[in-house]
Amino acid sequence: MKKPIVRLFFLTAITTLLYSCTNETNDVDAKAESQQFKIINVTNHDGKPFSTGASLSSPTGKYVDNPGGGVMMQAFYWDVPAGGNWWNTVKGKVTAWGNAGIGSIWLPPASKAQNGAFSMGYDPTDYFDFGDYNQNGSTETRFGSKTELVSLITSAHTENIKVYADIVINHNSGGQSEANPYTGTSTWTNFSGVASGKFTRNYNDFYKNSYGNNDEGSFGGFPDLCHANPHVQDWFWLRADGVGKYYKNTMKFDGWRFDYVKGFGAWVVNSWNANVGGFSVGELWDSNVNILNDWANAANSSVFDFACYYKMNDAFDGNNLALLNDDMMWKRNPYKAVTFVTNHDTDEIWSKMLAYSYILTHEGYPTIFYRDYEEWLDKAKLNNLIWIHNNKATGTTSILYSDNDEYVARRNGYNGNPGLVVYINNSDVWQERWIQTNWANTQIKDFTGNSTWYPTTQADKWVKIQCPPKGYSVWSINQ
């Protein structure tokens, strides 16, 4: 009666042994396959994180600087609700944003524009009217009053959140008609009656004029400001009571998002930054990395990484993650690249969480779009990625593997921080892959919680990790 039981036990043991051997053989083969991919060391620098300048001092004692650098929130979208309550809306969110790890907010153009209470601010009339003068049909701007704006900035600073102003200095709108001797016509270039009485302008402050016929570009037929005119330079960045220094020293803005920088020379932003200071980023809408990098260097400014944006769109939505190997601004110049997934002008990427998992684990200065965070995506998942960015996304970058469906990259750590490995999977099934980490004989875990594995790296630093379908995992030392 006992012989069949012995035979069954023997068969089970043999089967288990064969399965184990097969599994080990498969693992060896899988590891060998991964070893065929030549690791791409993307960046080569000392590993320091992106810096936005001096830290804020706060009575709360909260910190801003963290191992991975900062995260910016674009704190508006196109056509936010009119009615003058947007500054209050944003003010009500800064504490939660600060707790989540947001280090800065980018506000829409704050001054009075041609369409008054209905304008999004990109048609500026009076740079010193923040909603406290009755002109262009309203006293408040679309976003609120000057008092509410100051209160928002103060509240953000209490949370150690920096505040960046969207500055439109290419063009103006809302002037009165005047005879223009340079065009032989009447032009809408008479800004002598702005309610603030500051930075009055006339036809000689706009092209064409005594300084020339045009600059690098004009926008939508609006009067095109002439930055070659000393009067314009004086009021924008030279005078102690001019636009830049008033915004920075009186309104307490910490930096600038320059609108449509294709419309004027990079020297303009360079001069502004040299005379006013503060963090700056330019909107140079171009996917060509050379153009982005040349402008950033000439302007002494950061620039939005449109090259990264379009590559992510092609990679994630076009199902070819190998495109993430291509050149981007953050790879060329990581300390001057501001990365993003969506903004108020363009929203093309469908696989947004994969894109956020990319920019929040890679180099550059990642930006989160208000509606993605507050309305459209999973806030808990975004908060998790913000935490990962701030605490684990350190050091230079190496691409460990990429194909159509899979992308694995490693942040190599900095100043005692271990860095991370991010695994992005654009397929419909779970994937597993052997990769080389920074760590030998060390237990690691997925800090997203998407995987429950707790693997230990081998002596040669190799380890097998996994990633969920249409998802991502982020691995680092289990501590």
Automatic annotation (TrEMBL):
InterPro entries, per database record: A-amylase_thermo, Alpha-amylase_C_pro, Alpha_amylase, GH, GH13_cat_dom, Glyco_hydro_b
Where is Ca(2+) 1 annotated to bind?
Answer: N170
Q: Where does Ca(2+) 3 bind?
A: D405
The cofactor required is: Ca(2+)
Q: Which Gene3D superfamilies does this UniProt record tie to the protein?
A: Glycosidases, Golgi alpha-mannosidase II
What does the record give as the active site? D259, E283
Identify the EC number(s).
Answer: 3.2.1.1
**What's one GO MF term for it?**
calcium ion binding
- Residue ranges of every copy of the Glycosyl hydrolase family 13 catalytic domain listed in the record: 70-386
Name the domain of life: Bacteria
Among its keywords, does the record have Cell wall biogenesis/degradation? Answer: no
Q: Which UniProt keywords apply?
A: Calcium, Carbohydrate metabolism, Glycosidase, Hydrolase, Metal-binding
SMART domains tied to this protein:
Aamy (SM00642)
A single Gene Ontology biological process assigned to it is: carbohydrate metabolic process
Q: Which family does it belong to?
A: Belongs to the glycosyl hydrolase 13 family.
Q: What is this protein called?
A: Cytoplasmic alpha-amylase
Source organism of this protein record: Flavobacterium panici
Upper lineage ranks? Bacteria, Pseudomonadati, Bacteroidota, Flavobacteriia, Flavobacteriales
Gene expressing this chain: amyA
